[in-house]
Amino acid sequence: MSDRDPLAELERAFDTLSEQFGVDVDTVPTDILDEGDAFVVYADLPGFDNADLDVQLVEERKLTITADHSEESETTDGRYVQRERRRQSASRTVRLPEAVDEEGTSASYEEGVLTVRLPKVSGDADDGTDIPVN
After folding, report:
1. Mind listing the domains of the chain with CATH numbers?
2. Are 18 and 27 in contact (CB under 8 A)?
3. Which of 128, 102, 106, 101 minimizes the C-alpha distance to 117?
4. 118 close to 108: Cβ distance less than 8 angstroms
5. How far apart are CA 43 and CA 116, in angstroms?
6. 3-state secondary structure the chain
7. Closest by Cα among 107, 116, 132 to 32
8. Closest CA to 53 of 88, 81, 23, 101
9. Going by C-beta distance under 8 Å and a sequence separation of 6 or more, which residues neighbour residue 93?
């Protein structure tokens, strides 16, 4: 009998692939587009429903996307010989290059893709105080 663990080998293969292609298997793939006046974040979340998604903006520059879905089948006929439940979760936090306006943010979810629009803070916002140097 062999000492090989096929599951460990499979896990190592996934780790190698994620290192080579720069994608973590457990994370949510995202694209961030700078449209000038706003950032638009596209996140691939196939297999989830709107109710499964939680999108939060933290500190005007961090966007956190969490998706959690569990599925159970209910049967009252007979006894279970085997019963499988599916649970799927994913999360991703992205740091935006500039602060965004919380009030104008919006999100939509269609065909497995979450789209979050985050308008940038307008130029007349308080960016601090200039201190002249004499």
Report:
1. 25-71+86-122 (2.60.40.790)
2. no
3. 106
4. no
5. 8
6. CCCCCHHHHHHHHHHHHHHHHCCCCCECCEEEEECCCEEEEEEECCCCCHHHEEEEEECCCEEEEEEEEEECCCCCCCCCCCCCCEEEEEEEEEECCCCECHHHCEEEEECCEEEEEEEECCCCCCCCCCCCCC
7. 116
8. 88
9. 62, 63, 64, 65
What's the token pair of residue 121?
């803070």
Residue in the block written with tokens 């999360």? 91
Whether 15 contacts 7, CB under 8 Å: no
pLDDT of residue 134 exceeding 50: no
Q: Rounded distance, CA 101 to CA 105, Å?
A: 7
- Alpha-carbon span 34 to 32, nearest angstrom: 7
Mean pLDDT of 19-39: 77
Per-residue pLDDT of 55-100, as tens digits, reads 999 887 899 999 988 776 565 666 767 666 667 788 889 999 999 9
